[in-house]
Each structure stands twice: as C-alpha cells, then as structure tokens.
Amino acid sequence: MKDRIKVIITNNQKTVRVPTGVRMLIRRCCNAVLISEDFKGSAEISVTIVDNSEIHELNLKHRSIDRPTDVLSFPLGVDGVYDINNDTGAQMLGDIVISIEKAMEQAELYGHSLDREIAFLTVHSMLHLLGYDHEPGGLELVRMREREESVLTQLGLVRSGSYYTME
C-alpha cells in the first residue's frame, strides 16, 4: 500500500474569511516537510484555523503565556514514535493551530503575502511535530530555520525579509 498523507483542516473562526487556496497550501506544506524530512509511512495531521481570541486561550492554558500567538503545535509523538490510527494504520503526528488574524498581522508586518506567512507557520509547526525545537536557541534554532527556508524555497515561497522584530 502506498504511503498516504491525510491533512484534516478545520476552520473554527468566523472573524476572517479564509482565502481560496489556503487549504491546498497547508496540505502542500505538510507534504513538502514530510518529503524533505524523508518521513516514512502514512501520516495524519490536524490543522485548525482559529482567531486571536481562541489561540490566546490555548496559549494561556497550554503554555501559561497570556497573549495571542501565531501558531501552536501539539505533537503526538516522542522521539519519532507516534500513535497509530487503528482504522488507517497512519501515524498521527499531532495538531497544528493557526491564528488567521495573527497570520494576517504578521504578513503585513514582514511585508510578504498571507500565503507566505501561512506556509511559514505550517512548515514551522510541522517541524515541531517531527521533533524540532527552537526554544533552546543556538544551533537548534539555526537548524530549524534552515529546514523551514529549505522547504519554503522548494515550494517557491522565498523569504523577502526578516521574521524578527524587537518586542
């Protein structure tokens, strides 16, 4: 049986109309990361699009950070071992939650398209689901950024500036 990638996308907000093509873009990003990382086997990923209010609640509940963020990752695997969907045999990588409002704000702030921002957030979060972690900084951060840019370049979404602002 051929490996299959299932990306389940849910829109949980009514604040912003999700632009045409965003769902396909998210699927392309998930697939590109798995190919780039030489992931073996079938996989399932859940992606939920929310507003700033909902991601703020999730950020507070799960990370004790009292403000909205752009994306949250909830990996289901540890050290490359994932729960298996008994019906499909697919490895369940985890959940990605993207704030469409924050993505729009950041696209404007960084001077690139909403597609580029959503692609970046999806790729970033997919790498977290696969075990990458930039929190320690240093080499881990550099390694993750290199992987992100490599995948985005393969997708034709080349960076046009910096993601870092002074807060």
Description:
Helix 3 (100-110) packs across helix 4. The protein is 43% helix and 19% strand. It has one domain (5-154): Collagenase (Catalytic Domain) (3-Layer(aba) Sandwich). It starts with a strand and ends in a 13-residue tail after the last helix. It has helices spanning 22-36, 52-63, 100-110, 114-129, 138-154, and strands at residues 5-11, 43-50, 71-75, 83-84, 91-99. The protein has five helices and five strands; from the N terminus they run E-H-E-H-E-E-E-H-H-H. The chain is an alpha/beta fold.
Summarize the structure.
It contains 5 helices and 5 strands.
What is the β-strand count? 5
The CATH architecture would be: 3-Layer(aba) Sandwich
- Helix count equals 5
Domain count: 1
Draw up the topology in text:
Elements: E1 5-11, H1 22-36, E2 43-50, H2 52-63, E3 71-75, E4 83-84, E5 91-99, H3 100-110, H4 114-129, H5 138-154
Helix pairs in contact: 1-4, 1-5, 3-4, 4-5
Give short descriptive properties of this protein:
167 residues, alpha/beta, Collagenase (Catalytic Domain), five-stranded mixed beta sheet, 5 strands, disordered C terminus
